[in-house]
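Usage example:
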Amino acid sequence: MAEQQSYYVPASSPWPIVGAVGLGLIAWGAAHAIIDMSKEQDGYGNTVLIAGLIVIAVMMFGWFRDQINESMSGKYSSQLGNSYKQGMSWFIFSEIMFFAAFFGALFYARVIAVQWLGGDSNNAMTNDVLWPEFVAQWPLVKTPGGTETQAMGWYGLPAINTLILLVSSVTCHFAHTGLEHGKRKQLTAMLGITIILGCIFLYLQGAEYVHAYQDLNLTLDSGIYGNTFYMLTGFHGMHVTLGTVMLIVMFLRVLKGHFTPNNHFAFQATSWYWHFVDVVWLCLFVVVYIL
Amino acid sequence: MSTAVEDTHHDTHHDHKPYGIGRWLFTTNHKDIGSMYLWLSFTMFLVGGAMAMVIRAELFQPGLQLIEPQFFNQMTTVHGLVMIFGAVMPAFTGLANWMIPMMIGAPDMALPRMNNWSFWILPFAFLILLGSLFMEGGGPAFGWTAYAPLSTTYSSDSTALFVFSVHIMGISSIMGAINVIVTIMNMRAPGMSYMKMPLFAWTWFITAFLLIAVMPVLAGAVTMLLTDKYFGTSFFDAAGGGDPVMYQHIFWFFGHPEVYIMILPSFGIISAIIPAFARKPLFGYASMVYATAAIALLSFLVWAHHMFTTGMPVFAELFFMYCTMLIAVPTGVKIFNWVATMWRGSMTFETPMLFALAFVILFTIGGFSGLMLAIIPADFQYHDTYFVVAHFHYVLVTGAIFSIMAAAYYWLPKWTGHMYDSTLAKTHFWTSLISVNVLFFPMHFAGLAGMPRRIPDYATQFADINQIASIGGFAFGLSQLIFLWVVIKCVKGGEKAAAKPWDGAEGLEWTVPSPAPYHTFEKPPKVE
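Running the assembly step on the lines above writes:
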């Protein structure tokens, strides 16, 4: 609720429309890049996609620069700060729902679709008529169509990665408390460790993908097990990548002395985001790898 | 940047609007953004309407006359997408932008730049979607629901464009919804407690939660379509262990709350208009809030009633049937409250009230046919017939669209500072009311008699009914041009509107002059 005497309304800005053009180029370019790829033809898709990405990068640079300048010159009210915090939390909620769609697909495939293809419930005829040889099992290492693959174990790399992300969440928290208490050394050290752990996670995730493709024949198109495995870990990996970039930006801003114990929304948002990708990974580790 | 800030500072004191194209491109003003949303919505309404005219022209007679079946399918698909994501949802977002800050005593939306971004990405989404109609192989032809495998194995490359345009629409909706939530949670004037908020703010608040909960699920569903078609996954392909029915589950988990996203703000509009013209406070304000919340919660438990015929265990069908019927209870509370508000009121019948009354009656008809569809054995017959088409056009056209028309007439004086031409407006109402019923009411009978939807041709016994419906359709389409005329005339001039042109109206928006100043409530108003 409003506390102060008069409101602060941010001034008009050229960046949203630049961002809209960028997003439009990305969507058009990505769609055509995919069509070009499927037809094995040369087209404008990739070019437009890259142009869009550049426009978005410029937009983010400019938009954030303006925000930072305005914030540091003391223009923002505490009410606007609250709006930012609430906006970020609801954005993270919408991200959770995005992952929920894929967790839901995994649940449905595992508990319902595969079982029914194996003749469960009252679907004996499905199995007999379509694929009599098919045996329902999870991980689905042999699809009804006959594609074979191997399951990814939870021990080894995935377990190490879980540990890494958990530790990074803790270090991120300590960086945050360091900032809140004005302990600059703790802040930079802990934030630096968090970034390094994030990078190690991404590297190991890449190594795991190579292992899956080369040794296990576990690929994106190897049936519903591979589909859910790659879509969940892949989208999670994209979020970790984004989170790491955000952390690096925060690191640079810390070095520049942008944050004060009372005014550091960007840092707080990044920290929330990092905890969010950590929690998603925990669910993912349990549901995709262990169970 | 600093000069821009100075300028705005200057503006706030002299109510001097920035001019030129830059005003619209760079704006952070909720009224400008609201107007752009409303104009986009009306443009899309005409585009989607033109497609409906093509559909009705083809269906005027049995046999194939005008267009190829494949193009007919593109028309039904894109008509649905454009009307839902282009006409109804942006209209509500536009109304929210214009009205919610004024209703709760806020100076603007909480996140004004994001507000601009969430509007301006929409035209690009529709350029991509409509552009796909002109590409090789044509536009999406799989129905707005994009069921696999129609949208994967059997579709043209328009699937890729469809998927990415839906992503942009989703991003826009999510940002718009976050803005509404944060505005309401954080920007209410002192004294404006939640239970003092106008119902339009309340219904939009709840709608916004539905949006951030389900638009990401739609994004996930269409992403799976994309990878199924182009990257070899088999989410919706039984040969790889997936299931086409899984798509329907994920889609309708989005799709059913989406239905309420398109009607809850209408409930808020009607709850503002009926008390104003019955000159009585709204009957049962608190029960209206709770009923809205109940409908929103139930909307997550009913999705599979769209797929009774596609294969589910009996206990699941029963669960979804009973949950669906349960929705009639809070909806009934609302209808009862509106009627009770009018009871012994001193009613007058200005155009907003006429549309609101038509809404109450015709939306109820759509609700009842929905109840019929909720009954599993009955649905086995009605599924995918024109009965379904009649049902959802009653709730979406005479429901959502009529409420938007009512809102437009109700708040036009506030937006433009002029009264609209009431004779023209009433002409618009009566022609719309009659033609919309000639258009959609016969479809119930066609459906009950077994005419399937999404088919360009039909058995000859349906010829008369389709001819009547088509005539109604053309008349309804033409009637909307009267609306355009009324709005343009009202923007350009007319009788000066008072700050509160409706003597029974309540709310903070009527305490500011008409037209509303460019910046309202620079300081929080006092709310008693």
